[in-house]
Design a protein that fits this description.
heterodimer; A: alpha/beta; 6-stranded mixed beta sheet; B: mainly alpha; two-stranded antiparallel sheet; two-stranded antiparallel ribbon; 14 helices; about 5% strand; globular
Chain lengths: ~525, ~350
């Protein structure tokens, strides 16, 4: 059998953490090969080894039967391997063409004529593979989907025959995802080998030729989608049976009346726990990020804010939590105006935030798990007083929450930075849900988590809702929105564009609205291409 | 990626190498810096072994020598503790020198003019005035940063010069010693002069300094305030999200570190100079930064670092006299030490 890449017995440790323990991986020309596994299973590490980011501790890599040792990604690129990282490696202020040649030519400036040649070649490639991107466009002007195409294009420009994509669907709209895979298929048809890393079962089932599942640094198996089922794959990933929640919607009762009325304000009878009206805020680059956002969440209700990344969700999250000052509008918590209150004051009034960036906002890596579970409530009972921190109380509090939220730790004194993504999120949830909450802002609570952890987070959110907490769920994950929402708004370019109740929720419509289409109209054309 | 994370790690947490390994790397760095110091001595035409032995002799050879080490250690220790606390919260107060001088000015003015006949009361009031003035001078910087996000490194650094100029003006003009032509300020009320221990000639401020060490250690490790400071230092965003009021914390840390610098200035006036005098600090506010870093922002570490540096500096003066070597060599050693220490940390991280 023809083999383009063969990795055997790859082992890699980071300090005391075993990332890979003797993994074999094989790639054939013309195939789309999915690398599936939970967070921390070693998928990205394995591909980073192939891409020359770091050498393996043990094992060997062979290309077309010849053993290779890459000392850097440069070597890998020279060997025609390309990688599209989860977080794009593009310079926003440069054009697509400039980005494509970046790092190629020892720092010399490109002459205009050369750049024109580069653009022409990029245009040609773009046309051939249907990756429509304008080579002259500056990267900051492009949407996330377009930027991803630029990354793919750049790899092709460098003649990649092996293309690695790390979580390519994580930041795309459902529509963009559906557009990406046929293009990868076309590439593979020309003999390229494509690896995509994912923890989304559905991507895998629909698009991969072969699937390799990793768990805890070991290869569980390699199989074809036709020979498997989602349940089996989930079991292989997690190592136990998992209740899968692929969503009800889509098959739900058809809706005649498209309820695309603007978001209703204050119309509900029950006094809302969270009431926001006319909120305007600017983003970090001083662009207007929130336009006249109004919403209300009743006790015991989950209002989902669906939307593709980059439409104002972080600003909404921050403004509601008191981390960003709005330019106009009011935020009320149980009737009390908290528009100007700081985070501490809002927390005192019963607001909790599960931040979208759990490592930047949710926890402190350098502190122990026990400290992380208590640090938002120090200075009073049961943790001593302002003058004394009761370490014993902190420890017993930690033991209790670790048990209740099944956080997997060796010891409560372990640094929080050593936890895997799913466990880190359990820790954040444990701290926040153990507060006396009235209202919870859960921003991207399952981003980057594996199936098992997602299940856990959803259960916890549902339990909080059932206790009467008003929950605002900000999510880019359509599955999550469809499974959790009692009501759903879609956020598009800083505005809330629709407000649907559970019965009226329809997967297709929400997906379209996330792309900017409401009322059945086609999406607004994006700035340049598409 | 891994590299940038390691580089961003605060200084006082040598990852995966606490305890023995950190101790060994510190000792290695110390040995290397003494070797470099020896080389400098050779270059200056001296003989390292006899130079170092005269340094040791100067520092420990007589009760007076030991006393001088302690007297010098007092301001370094007091300021080093305050700076260590502030640095833990990533509040980089570079203005201890200026805060010391403002504390000295206020404390001296009280000790000159306040008509209280009772010595302990006069001393207490004078010290409180010094602490308050230092705290205020630091607090301004804290307010600027908390309100308008002005970088405290720049403002606190520049305020040093303002403070020293204000102090100088007072010493030259309104508070000049009567009949004195040069830069001598007025002598303080004899009642305000701190008692001195016999033989060693150490003022009793040394007890204050020593008592502050366990206090600071407790504050850093065992209070909610100390935890919040660490939270800010490790991850200011997460701290803010968890309800830590960062503005207040910044102001608080500037007040504390400024107040301690003011205390150091006050003790220099009442215990060492006995008058308003520009010579009360030879850049001690800056040396205290090195003390805080060498002590790894740990209270007990700061104690060791303050003693180490004052042995070097105090003994070094004796060395430069007996061996005819430039004093600057001695001043170079702690600097070289810090550099080696940082390199050793980096290597220990792998």
């Amino acid at each position: 059998m023809d083999v383009s890449v063969s990795m055997s017995g790859i082992a890699k440790r980071f300090g005391t953490v075993r990332a890979l323990a003797g993994v074999d991986f094989e790639l054939r020309p013309g195939e789309i090969h999915a690398l599936l596994g939970e967070n921390g299973a070693g998928k990205t590490t394995l591909m980073n080894v192939l891409y020359g980011m770091f050498p393996p501790d043990e094992g060997s890599v062979a290309l077309g039967g010849r053993e290779v040792r890459f000392r850097s990604p440069q070597d890998a690129i020279a060997a025609r391997i390309g990688m599209v990282h989860q977080h794009f490696m593009l310079v926003p202020t440069l054009t697509v063409a400039e980005n494509a040649v970046l790092g190629e030519r020892g720092g010399r400036l490109l002459r205009r004529r050369e750049l024109a040649a580069v653009s022409a070649r990029l245009g040609e490639l773009a046309e051939r593979y249907g990756l429509d991107v304008d080579p002259q466009a500056r990267v900051w002007q492009l949407s996330v989907g377009e930027q991803q195409r630029v990354e793919v294009l750049r790899a092709l420009y460098r003649d990649a025959r092996v293309l690695i994509l790390d979580e390519p669907t994580a930041t795309l709209t459902p529509i963009e995802t559906e557009r990406l895979f046929p293009k990868l298929r076309a590439l593979a048809a020309e003999g390229a080998s494509i690896v995509f890393i994912t923890h989304h079962l559905w991507d895998v089932i629909d698009w991969a030729d072969r699937i390799t599942v990793l768990r805890e640094g070991e290869r569980v198996g390699t199989l074809r989608p036709a020979d498997s089922s989602p349940e089996e794959l989930a079991r292989m990933m997690v190592g136990r049976d998992v209740r899968l929640m692929r969503v009800v919607a889509g098959d739900a009762a058809p809706v005649d009346e498209p309820p695309t009325s603007p978001p209703k304000h204050d119309s509900d009878a029950a006094a809302p726990t969270l009431a926001v009206s006319g909120l305007n805020a600017r983003g970090d680059r001083d662009t207007v990020a929130l336009h006249d956002v109004s919403l209300s969440v009743a006790p015991g209700e989950i209002l989902a804010i669906a939307g593709v990344e980059g439409n104002g969700q972080p600003e909404l999250e921050e403004t509601l939590a008191g981390l960003r000052t709005p330019e106009a509008g009011t935020v009320r918590l149980e009737g009390r105006d908290v528009t100007r209150a700081d985070p501490a004051e809002r927390m005192r009034l019963g607001l909790g935030l599960v931040p979208s960036d759990r490592y930047r906002r949710g926890l402190i890596r350098e502190l122990s798990v026990a400290d992380n579970l208590a640090f938002d409530r120090l200075g009073g009972a049961p943790f001593g007083s302002e003058w004394r921190l009761d370490r014993k109380a902190v420890a017993s509090h930690a033991a209790e929450l670790i048990e209740r939220f099944s956080i997997r730790v060796d010891s409560p004194d372990q640094l929080a930075g050593t936890l895997s993504g799913g466990n880190a999120q359990r820790l954040v949830l444990a701290r926040i849900l153990s507060r006396d909450l009235r209202c919870l802002i859960a921003a991207q609570p399952t981003r980057g988590l594996d199936v098992g952890a997602i299940e856990f987070v959803w259960e916890q959110l549902a339990a909080a809702r059932d206790r009467g907490v008003a929950i605002l769920l900000i999510s880019t994950d359509l599955d999550e929105v469809m499974s959790m929402a009692d009501r759903c708004c879609v956020m598009y370019r800083g505005r809330l564009v629709v407000d649907w109740s559970r019965e009226l929720l329809d997967r297709e419509k929400v997906g379209l609205a996330m792309g900017g289409a409401t009322n059945g109209a086609p999406p607004e054309p994006a700035r340049s291409a598409t | 990626m891994a590299v940038s994370q390691a580089a961003a790690r605060p200084l006082w947490l040598p990852p995966r190498s606490r305890g023995l390994k950190a101790g060994l790397s510190s000792l290695g760095a110390l040995a290397l810096s003494l070797v470099v110091g020896g080389l400098l001595i050779v270059i200056a035409g001296g003989e390292p072994v006899s130079a170092y032995s005269s340094l040791i002799d100067g520092a420990f050879g007589s009760p007076y020598g030991i006393g001088q080490v302690l007297v010098l250690a007092v301001p370094l220790l007091i300021m080093g503790l305050g700076l260590a606390l502030a640095f833990r919260g990533r509040v980089y107060n570079i203005g201890a020198e200026g805060q010391l001088f403002m504390g000295a000015l206020a404390s001296g003015a009280v000790a000159i003019f306040l008509p209280v006949g009772v010595a302990p009361v006069l001393i207490a009031v004078s010290i409180v005035a010094g602490v308050a003035a230092g705290a205020a001078w630091g607090g301004i910087v804290g307010v600027w940063r908390a309100r308008w996000g002005v970088n405290e490194v720049i403002t606190s650094l520049l305020l040093n010069f303002v403070a020293i100029l204000i102090f100088t003006w007072f010493v030259r003009r309104p508070l000049r010693a009567p009949g004195s032509p040069d830069l001598q300020g007025r002598a303080i009320d004899p009642d305000a002069v701190l008692p001195t221990l016999p033989d060693v000639a150490v003022h009793i401020g040394v007890f204050v300094a020593i008592a502050l060490v366990p206090l600071a250690a407790y504050l850093m490790a065992s209070t909610p305030f100390g935890m919040r400071v660490r939270m800010m230092g490790f991850n200011a965003e997460a701290a803010r999200t968890a309800g830590v009021r960062s503005g207040r914390m910044v102001i608080g840390l500037m007040l504390i570190s400024g107040g301690l610098a003011g205390l150091a200035g006050s003790l220099q006036i009442l215990g060492v100079a006995g008058r308003l005098d520009l010579g009360i600090s030879q850049g001690y506010g800056f040396t205290a930064i090195v003390v805080a870093l060498l002590g790894r922002l740990n209270a007990w570490g700061v104690l060791l670092a303050a003693l180490f540096i004052s042995v070097l500096q105090s003994g070094g003066q004796a060395m430069s006299v007996t061996e005819g070597l430039p004093y600057a060599i001695v001043l170079a050693i702690p600097g070289v030490f810090v550099v080696f220490l940082l390199i050793a940390d980096r290597l220990a991280r792998g």
